[in-house]
Every structure is written in C-alpha cells, then in structure tokens.
C-alpha cells in the first residue's frame, strides 16, 4: 500500500517568507509525528498528534512554528518568517498509535532558506 | 545530556566484516527500542524493534538491549556494500508517546 507522502520534496524560500509543508500519513494511522533533521544530525522531535490533537508540542523550536492536523489524516507544518537556521529536512512519520507501534517515515521535505 | 547518545562515526569496514553499532540512553522510562536505516535523501526505514532485554535476530541483523546498563546495540554479520547507510537508534516512552533518536552512525562497507 501507499506509504507516508510528503510535499513538496524540495522547497527553496527567501528569508522572512512563510512556508507550508504537507504530510499524508498511511491510511488508518492515528498517530503522526514531525521531526527535523539538520545536516549530519539526528532526528529532532518537533510535534506529535494523536488523532487531531497534539499532546506534545514541546519540540517546536519557536512560536514561528505551528502544526495542525485535520480529519485525523493530513497534517501541515507551517514556518512563519523563515530564518536561515530553519534550513533542514523535515520528516513526517505515522503509526497505528498504540504504545508499541513502529513509526513509518516519509522521504521528507528539504527546506532551504536563502 | 541527550536522552539517547550515539557515536556519529563515520565507520568504514571491508565487505564481510561484522559491524557493531551502539547507543546509550539515560531515561529509565524508555520501554521500546528501535533501529532505523536511512539511505541518502530517503526517510528512515525500520530495521529492528525490541522490547525486553536480550537479543533479537533477523537474518544478518541482531539487536541487543541491556536495560540494566541502558545500552543498545545492533550487529550486522557478513556486511555488504548495500548496508552502507546511516543507522539510527531510537527509544520510545509509552508515557509520552515520543520516539527519541540518537544522532545516527554513518556506515560505509567497502567492496
């Protein structure tokens, strides 16, 4: 079946602009995660959804970052007034939502802020 | 201190070698442990998943967890050039629903 789909795959934007990154999880997966991966770094947790609610937003780096999920499916990560340090690969993952369900990742959106 | 620590490498081995990848963690609440493999410009893919202390084997891969010392390992036998990738360990807390990753170890297997 279809895996986690992220769009766009690449995004180049100018400093100060807003960007929206989209994630389509695997059908039936109730949990959805956003991570950020900077060059040569591991995955940094950003936010986690169970259904449409976000029990843990602790990883969002600043108030310029926000995320929402509608209909228990598609999620959007929005970065306002982008800065150069926001350049990274943004990865989305979904799971069945039980406490021992493995995460399935998309291929990420590579964001470059110039 | 990061909750999950992993030596970033890089690690270079000849084809056929046994590879040992290791992580330590600090949070006793972590209950489940996973190893992901990530090829360049791709998302991580799940390799191994373990819960209890001990070994779990899948083909050429063996995952080992020692909860008493908070140490997790991945062994790759008869390594192949196609194993060249970044390997990420991860620990999951059922309390928070959060999966925390190590930094990742870059492995190169030379033919």
In short:
With 114 residues, chain A is mostly beta strands. Helices cover 0% and strands 50% of the residues of chain A. In chain A, a hairpin with a 5-residue loop joins β7 (65-69) and β8 (75-79).
Plain-language structure description:
The complex is a heterodimer of chains A (114) and B (111). Chain A is mainly beta. Chain A has no helices and eleven strands. In chain A, strand 7 (65-69) and strand 8 (75-79) form a beta hairpin. The model of chain A has no long low-confidence stretch (mean pLDDT 92). With 111 residues, chain B is mainly β. Chain B has strands at residues 4-6, 11-14, 19-25, 32-38, 45-50, 54-58, 61-66, 71-76, 85-93, 98-101, 105-110. In chain B, a hairpin with a 4-residue loop joins strand 7 (61-66) and strand 8 (71-76). Chains A and B meet through strand 4, strand 5 and strand 10 of A and strand 4, strand 5 and strand 10 of B.
- C-alpha geometry of chain B: globular
Principal-axis shape of chain A equals globular
For the biggest sheet of chain B, the summary is: 6 strands, mixed
Number of helices of chain A: 0
Radius of gyration from the alpha-carbon trace of chain B, in angstroms: 13 Å
- The tally of beta strands of chain A, per DSSP, is 11
The tally of helices of chain B reads 0
Strand content of chain A: over 45%
Structural class of chain B, by secondary structure, is mainly beta
Share of helix of chain B, binned: under 10%
- Give the strand content of chain B: over 45%
Structural class call of chain A reads mainly beta
Topology, element by element:
The complex is a heterodimer of chains A (114) and B (111).
Chain A: E1 5-7, E2 10-13, E3 19-24, E4 31-37, E5 43-50, E6 53-56, E7 65-69, E8 75-79, E9 88-95, E10 104-105, E11 109-113
Parallel strand pairs in A: 2-11
Antiparallel strand pairs in A: 1-3, 3-8, 4-5, 4-9, 5-6, 7-8, 9-10, 9-11
Chain B: E1 4-6, E2 11-14, E3 19-25, E4 32-38, E5 45-50, E6 54-58, E7 61-66, E8 71-76, E9 85-93, E10 98-101, E11 105-110
Parallel strand pairs in B: 2-11
Antiparallel strand pairs in B: 1-3, 3-8, 4-5, 4-9, 6-7, 7-8, 9-10, 9-11
